[in-house]
């Protein structure tokens, strides 16, 4: 007797047919599961607009999730109804997405970047250096294959970046020698794995069938492999995956503390700093857009706001007073200084004790 796959298995299967990433698969499956549990374990076919809106409202009000998290949940439910259940629900498109606040990115100064990189050594330091030197996202860096690093052309080919797009970015000359030395150690590890009969590296989509021996070839290995073996969640095969981003994030946090930099920076901040510092050096915004892999130049334009000094490049009128010959400094004791009546009133008010509020 043929049994229809369970709902969550149907979601997984459809995600894989669409060639979405493992992280998207995990996120969508989890959102569908939470939606079903929230709705009293009823099948989504029996639910409608009211239940979907109630779930998204619950996330925003009770769960206090961010706008991006709420929109991810909505995308998962859209995928469930359209791609898995093949149910056309016009009302689902009409549900308004949460508005994400427009925030300027955190950017480190060149001195702060130097201070952070000076405090992280080894492979993790090399990864952080590449994030700043190439503008890659952290997962793009960790998923790099040996064949995608071109020392002769001083380029890094980013495969299957955000939006399933490839792009080319610059390989810093300063990191060429450390990276070569790192790859020599990685190659020795790879040869040891081959001798031990460890399964080959993960290959995306149908490449494993198209190139049956590629998973054991040096060119396809990860530049930053993990220190141990792990089980592939999709195939169940034990192999050496790429390094985990958690170690890089922890090293970044510790370096910020050690350098006493009071900014909520993450490894992704190095990408923001890469873009800002290139623009500050005079590179045109289209070049920076291509290096970052932005589909629209308006996304890159946010860094022009970060570049501005003192709020859109405007000089404060207080600083203009100082430039005009009115130095802003404390008067020497005994100086013949008589504040205006308005300033005396302000000073008296400021010194007065605060009453009950």
List descriptors.
mainly alpha; 3-stranded antiparallel β-sheet; DNA polymerase, domain 1; 357 residues; hpI Integrase, Chain A; 17 helices; globular
Could you please describe the fold and organization of this structure?
By secondary structure, the protein is mainly α. The protein has 2 domains: 7-94, Orthogonal Bundle (DNA polymerase, domain 1); 102-321, hpI Integrase, Chain A (Orthogonal Bundle). 51% of the residues lie in helices and 4% in strands. It has helices at residues 7-17, 22-38, 49-61, 67-84, 90-94, 110-118, 122-134, 138-142, 176-196, 207-210, 245-259, 267-280, 285-292, 297-300, 302-307, 317-323, 341-351, and strands at 149-150, 155-158, 167-170, 230-231, 238-239. The strands form 2 sheets. Strands 1-2-3 form a 3-stranded antiparallel β-sheet. A two-stranded antiparallel ribbon has the order 4-5. A hairpin with a 6-residue loop joins strand 4 and strand 5 (238-239). Helix 2 packs across helix 4. The radius of gyration is 27 Å and the shape is globular. The model is unreliable at 330-357 (pLDDT under 50).
